Model the fold of this input.
Amino acid sequence: MKISNCFILFCITLLSCSTSDNDRGKITGESGISYSDSKTMWKELKAQNDETYSYTVNFISWSGFGSRTTITVKDGLVSKKKYLYFEQVLNEESELEEVEIESYTETGEEIGSHSEGFDPLNIDELYETCISEYLIVNTDENDIYFNTNDAGIISSCGFVEKGCVDDCFIGFRISEFQWL
Done:
């Protein structure tokens, strides 16, 4: 059986680009805490706090539009999603002010019924999304970002394509986290 050189080169390229979960778990942010250590810390903290917390994900565009989604989790399950879409404008004092364009709150069986805003995920799902979707991208073509808050809980995970200049971050940034 004859295998073409192009096929062999393709397979070698695929293998050399892959990163094991172990390697991805060693990625460390500005906090100095690795993905793996953060996930371990999270498991301990969530058990101590009955898996009940809220977090907020913000997005602000260079053009002045933005959104804020707050997810509330009770006993490990998403119990509420609150969304706000806004525009930043200068007020009379030349300070930026948020002007609401759209908002909604979902609870119970409504959760996930709107497509706008951040997906209603608990923190465990964010860790999984982080390692399976964002930390696996090709580092020759993308800059990868991972960080934690002061408690060691994931606070951002994503990537930016090298050379991109406007609204390029793909992933999530948690601006607020609190135990309830």
In short: Confidence is low (pLDDT under 50) at residues 1-21. The longest strand covers residues 77-90.
